[in-house]
Design brief:
Oligomer: single chain
Number of strands: 0
Pfam families: EII-Sor
Main location: membrane
Number of helices: 11
Order of helices and strands: HHHHHHHHHHH
Radius of gyration: 24 Å
Largest sheet: none
Helix content: over 70%
Shape: globular
Organism: Holdemania filiformis
Protein name: PTS sugar transporter subunit IIC
Distance between the termini: 81 Å
Keywords: Cell membrane, Membrane, Phosphotransferase system, Sugar transport, Transmembrane, Transmembrane helix, Transport
């Protein structure tokens, strides 16, 4: 009971930090797993599970009105239940995904309820009640806190079998839609990231990384090391902006 309370409290506070304190990437499985493992008395297993779950959900992003699977609830609850029951990594992965999908459905419901506080804030703003606007924002955050905490705590108490059974009772059409959106979101998120950062000068290095992995079976770490070397070489041989500005000033002085 105490472990479940602590896991729910810590995971919920980590989630709230990402919404209130700014996005510091503390709500990632690679961090949640070890913390939950420390609470459950098995830090090493928590680190292993968190690292594996990070690989699964690394590319998930919330774009626009889309709501990806709840990584915080899925990571915290699956890690806690895995350590509690002594489950394997495969079982943990199979357990984390339906938990995250179930929490995703609940998060959508919370988003809908939060529109009430948004309308309340608008009315308070029209009246010049700035304290009311502030209170409306905090009420929306409090609703998220209650939902996340309750989801993790009750999930810890009732166990993974019941959660999986609940997910299995969700209509197949809804499950199929959630599964397809979950498959598309990582690719869409990475595509949008490339669109924002794409530069013709560096496109060759991007395709070089894909070629190394696809054709030469180079590991991700090795590709990253090669990328660092390429960046260093490019930095050493590329003309610097400072030297260019100095040459321009020298030419102006000669004129």
């Amino acid at each position: 009971m105490l472990q479940g309370f602590l896991v729910a409290l810590v995971a919920t506070l980590i989630y709230m930090e990402s919404r209130i304190g700014g996005q510091h990437m503390l709500d990632r499985p690679i961090l949640i797993g070890p913390i939950v493992g420390l609470i459950m008395g098995d830090f090493t297993m928590g680190l292993i599970i968190g690292g594996n779950l990070e690989l699964v959900w690394m590319g998930l992003v919330g774009i626009g009105t889309s709501t990806p699977p709840d990584v915080v609830v899925g990571s915290a609850l699956a890690t806690a239940l895995a350590i509690k029951t002594g489950a394997s990594y495969e079982t943990t992965l199979a357990l984390a995904i339906p938990i995250a999908l179930l929490a995703q459905v609940g998060s959508i419901g919370v988003c809908i309820l939060n529109t009430t506080f948004a309308h309340r804030a608008d009315k308070c703003a029209d009246k010049g009640d700035w304290k009311g606007v502030e209170m409306s924002n905090w009420m929306g955050s409090a609703l998220y806190f209650v939902f996340k905490f309750t989801m993790i705590f009750l999930g810890f108490l009732i166990g993974g079998d019941v959660i999986t059974a609940i997910v299995n009772n969700i209509p197949a059409v809804i499950q199929s839609g959630l599964a397809q959106s979950g498959n598309l979101l990582p690719a869409l998120g990475i595509a949008m990231l490339i669109q924002l950062t794409f530069d013709k000068k560096f496109a060759a290095f991007l395709f070089l990384g894909f070629a190394l992995v696809a054709f030469f079976n180079v590991s991700t770490i090795a590709a990253a090391v090669i990328g660092v070397i390429c960046a260093y070489v490019y930095y050493q041989f590329a003309p610097s902006g400072k030297s260019g500005s100095m040459s321009a000033s020298d030419e102006s002085e000669e004129l």
